[in-house]
Automatic annotation (TrEMBL):
CDD domains: DeoC
NCBIfam families: deoC
Species: Streptomyces violaceusniger
GO terms for MF: deoxyribose-phosphate aldolase activity
GO biological process terms held by the UniProt record: carbohydrate catabolic process; deoxyribonucleotide catabolic process
Keyword Lyase attributed: yes
Protein name: Deoxyribose-phosphate aldolase
Length: 319
């Protein structure tokens, strides 16, 4: 697959965006699957595995996005984010806690004084079917309540209909809504919902469209649609951010989310990052793992490496 893309579009009108996005190199789907499968067989030596597990823990966005979420659940999740294993102070903290906008104040209060970020889904998550003003109000409120990061969803219907300008303009508007008077804006993670994009070519196009509009991160999925994060899709997105930096000089992060449940899954993603984009992305500032059940398995495997035995199934809280 080519390492660079054609020159950037000179305009954001739909014709220019369409010409640029459809001029990107096509994705060899068979090749992408084969490459991802080959990398998934790579092993990490025992001496490096402990480091890799701790790195994966630091990359986790600990997430609760259910209709039955309560303030108590968010406080419990935040406590776990700050101290994943109450019996081991050496376990690193996770990257962020991700919640619905109305629960941002609870997470902000629970995480005050810690480096753990508060992320919030916005823009009518997960479907994105709402007027733009409602999406912007959703975003502004979450930012005003203290969210450090906003995870927005693109309008997949508009994208699949070829209305790239609408998608671009919505991302730009949400990015502007992430502004914080007198302070740094909230980081914007743009969810592509790759399980609804039908083809890897569309994943590449949506990745570039989001980056052109100013995304700080591109994210695979909401976790509400199957398939969610897959290694071949993450590979295509990693290639996109690599090529985007080569063309523009701007680095953009990647967040696979949904279906990443085991330490083996997490380590496969780290290998994929290292082999596709290189070590510049092997940092929580540039790569995240969206998960709700992954952390416990990482903690179990970490204890196994340190002690030679697995802890009991009730050793860690269920999230």
């Amino acid at each position: 697959m080519p390492d660079t893309a054609p020159g950037l579009p000179r305009s954001t009108d739909n014709a220019s965006l369409r010409a640029f996005l459809h001029g990107l190199p096509g994705v060899d789907e068979v090749g992408a699957r084969a490459r991802a499968a080959a990398l998934a067989t790579r092993s990490i030596k025992t001496t490096a595995k402990a480091y890799a597990i701790d790195l994966a823990i630091r990359m986790v966005d600990l997430t609760t996005l259910e209709g039955a979420d309560t303030p108590g659940k968010v406080r419990a999740l935040s406590a776990k984010a700050r101290r994943p294993d109450p019996e081991d102070r050496d376990v690193p903290q996770v990257a962020a806690v991700c919640v619905y906008p109305d629960l941002v104040p609870v997470a902000v209060d629970a995480l005050r004084g810690s480096p753990v970020a508060v992320a919030s889904v916005a823009t009518a998550f997960p479907a994105g079917r709402a007027p733009l003003e409602a999406k912007l109000a959703d975003t502004r409120q979450a930012v005003a309540d203290g969210a450090d990061e906003i995870d927005m969803v693109i309008d997949r219907g508009a994208f699949l209909a070829g209305d790239y300008r609408k998608v671009h303009e919505e991302i730009v508007a949400v990015r502007e809504a992430c502004a914080r008077p007198g302070g740094e804006p909230a980081h914007l993670k743009v969810i592509l919902e790759t399980g609804e994009l039908a083809a890897y070519d569309n994943v590449r196009r949506a990745s570039w469209l989001a980056m052109l509009a100013g995304a700080d991160f591109i994210k695979t999925s909401t976790g509400k649609v199957n398939p969610a994060a897959t290694l071949p899709v993450t590979l295509v997105m990693l290639e996109a951010v690599r090529d985007f930096r080569a063309v523009t000089g701007r680095q953009v992060g990647v967040k696979p989310a949904g279906g990443i449940r085991t330490t083996k899954d997490a380590l496969r993603h780290l290998v994929l990052v290292n082999e596709t984009t290189g070590p510049d992305w092997l940092d929580p500032s540039w790569f995240r793992l969206g998960a709700s059940s992954l952390l416990n398995d990482l903690l179990m495997q970490r204890t196994r490496l340190a002690t030679g035995t697995y802890p009991g199934p009730d050793h860690y809280t269920l999230d």
